[in-house]
Specification:
alpha+beta, 5-stranded antiparallel beta sheet, 7 helices, Protein kinase domain-containing protein, Ser/Thr_kinase_AS
Length: 306
């Protein structure tokens, strides 16, 4: 099948880019007629996501509308195709939202994925308060399994945060990692550059010359801390101030900010939040941590009421 190109894309300067065989067709805009818009699910700097009904199958899906004018060269492969749907179609894993199709018009890309009725983990905690440590451990186990999978396929997410972890349904803690808009491929002989993601989840090495998949591990550590504490790791609110702290004095654990945490959870957090990326634990090794020793990851574990 063919692939759609943007009329005049900027040439991508990403040095780590690996050539993949385009195996996904970005269809014509007429496919939008197959969907009925129902409600707004969320919005961000580059896009908005709406709940839509797919008329041919009568199923509910998430329709992400990405404005072409807001994208940069880093969102495209060097030959002019947008990255996110091509990366999503490579992934077949229960911990990642299922990709259905992509189409475009002159102004937007439309990326269709499964709908997770439980909403984001961020909204769940905002509306219902902190979860139990037992549930937080189950969430982290699923997330690290998903990160292990994408890293094994040389994909780096670069925007792991509560807002991008979705609950498959309202009743339990089955999670799905979403929003691969900043994701990219990593090759064995190259590293990544560029600052992507939300300020408080950024790893300190993004301000050096290059970095690798360990930025996702740092983000997982910050996410785990927020789950356990219910607080942001940085006291200031301004993104520029937070980025300055990430660069000059990145978040670290102490007796004050870990009050009420179990010692075994603190131990894993310390491994996830090593400032030097080469000392930071991998997703595979994190899954072997004693915190997870009683979890047998059949999905029934996560089907209990949240």
């Amino acid at each position: 099948m063919g692939c759609a190109t943007v009329k005049s894309p900027k040439k991508c300067s990403q040095t780590n880019e690996r050539r993949i065989s385009p195996a996904l067709e970005i269809s014509e805009f007429k496919l939008l007629n197959h969907y009925v818009s129902l409600s707004l699910l969320g919005s961000g700097a580059f896009s908005e996501v709406i709940l839509a009904k797919h008329i041919p199958t009568q199923s509910f899906r998430a329709l992400k509308i990405v404005s072409k004018s807001k994208l940069t060269s880093q969102h495209f492969f060097s030959w002019g195709t947008v990255r996110e749907p091509y990366i999503l179609q490579e992934i077949n894993y229960p911990g990642v939202i299922k990709f259905y199709e992509c189409f475009d018009d002159l102004l937007n890309f439309y990326i269709v994925t499964e709908y997770c009725e439980g909403g984001s983990l961020f909204k769940k905690i905002k509306n219902s308060g902190r979860l139990s440590e037992e549930n937080n451990v189950l969430i982290m186990y699923q997330l690290l399994k998903t990160v292990e999978y994408i890293h094994s396929h040389n994909i780096v997410h670069r925007d792991i945060k509560l807002e991008n972890v979705l609950l498959a349904c309202k009743q339990n803690i089955r999670i799905k990692l979403a929003d691969f808009g900043n994701a990219c491929h990593l090759t064995s002989d190259k590293k990544l550059t560029g600052c992507y993601g939300s300020a408080c989840y950024l790893a300190p090495e993004v301000y050096t010359n290059s970095y690798d998949e360990k930025v996702d591990i740092w983000s997982c550590g910050i996410l785990f801390y927020v789950l356990l504490s219910g607080k942001s790791p940085y006291s200031c609110k301004d993104p520029c101030e937070i980025k300055h702290l990430v660069n000059t004095s990145p978040f670290q654990l102490n007796d004050t900010n870990t009050v009420g945490f179990s010692s075994i959870a603190i131990d894993l957090l310390q491994l996830l939040l090593k400032i030097q990326p080469e000392q930071r634990i991998s997703a595979s090794d994190a899954l072997k941590h004693p915190l997870f020793e009683n979890i047998s990851m059949n999905l029934d574990e996560c089907s209990k009421d949240i």
